[in-house]
Amino acid sequence: MKLWKKNYELNKDVERFTVGKDYILDKNLIKYDCIASIAHVKMLGKVGMLKPAEVKRLGLELNKIIELDKKGLFKIKREDEDCHTAIENHLTKRLGDVGKKVHTARSRNDQSLTALRLYYREELESTKALVNELISSITEFKVEYGRVQLPGYTHTRKAMPSSVALWSDAFIDSMKDNLKVLEFVSVLVNQSPLGSGAGYGVPIKIDREYTARELGFEKAQSNPIYVQNSRGKFELAIVQALGQVMLDLNKIASDLIIFSMPEFGYFILPKKFLTGSSMMPHKNNPDVLEILRANYHVVDSYSFRISGIISNLISGYNRDVQLTKEPMMDSFEIAETSLRIASLLFKEMKVDREKCDKAMTRELFATEETYKLVEKGVPFREAYKQVSDKFSDQSR
After folding, report:
1. What distance in Å separates the CA atoms of residue 10 and residue 261, rounded to the nearest whole number?
2. CA geometry: angle at 38 spanning 319 and 195, to 5°?
3. Domain 108-359 CATH assignment equals 3.20.20.140
4. What is the DSSP letter of 149?
5. What is the structure's pLDDT at 393?
6. What is the pLDDT of residues 335-370, one digit of tens each?
7. pLDDT (tens digit, 9 = 90+) per residue, 270-313?
8. What pLDDT, in 10s, does the model give residues 302-313?
9. Catalytic residues
10. Where are the domains of the chain?
């Protein structure tokens, strides 16, 4: 039975249209909805709306659902619409009238948002752990190859001497900044929406701070209208933070695609990371890097998708925000998978010291020559001209 069941049957085409993929996507939320419901039930017992025995029975059954879900045995049907309905229907079937009491003092709006916030919070912690793992992998790579010099480029032309250490540290430093951005959005989403209803509170006295503490939130999000307005806003902030991570992975992939080409050969990609051609037997292709490079654009497109969905909506809940769920979940999956692949790559990638040394041609040291003249008292612009003329003569 639907949580909003009326005295008529919904058109099946309308049902399919409005439910969309929620009954599939919500497999990710079953555990979190049960955890939130357990806290909610305890609060209802605390304020006297449920008897202690009812709190216990509901808590036990919700934990059983979590166990069923772990084994892949808890199913959400399309007609359920989402995990929230499937869980309440299960409770009602198993516990009768006691199960019907679980939805007291909440709306599906704040219920759904609470499960999502718990999911986001855990996924953000996973993402931060993977960023730290990548930092460790790059650091180990730097320890082994850091002293190797290689050309630095501007405008895709040789510019000045660089090194594996300098290149590696650029991404280590950036990933550390990315951790700060991820930490900021972790703080942002760590506010409990539970008990705010459909955006205008509930007409009975409850203890929202209690459920916030039970669920480990920093605080209860106080304004019920803002609770609804923040849905989509917080998701956009998360996807943009993930986009910062993906932007760095995009640049790493771009560098490695170019500098692992035989024409350069600075980096040696592990053979087991390379794919072949269906026609050309000599090919070893860096498909994994090309997908890693493209994944940034996918996540970036989700940012535009979410911002488009949530703009021009009046304050309060609008069903439009349902469509932010899929791009949000996909963004986490893409970012986490990409970080794992990048970490594996740095653990197995090698540097061709000989090719790097050979690439360290004399023009890379032109700026250094200029400043040696400056140190002898030659004005910079004159020193610049002398060295420029020398290199111009040599290139004829």
Report:
1. 59
2. 45
3. no
4. E
5. 62
6. 999 999 999 999 999 999 999 999 999 999 999 999
7. 998 888 878 888 888 999 999 999 999 999 999 999 999 999 99
8. 999 999 999 999
9. 155, 277
10. 12-100, 108-359, 362-394
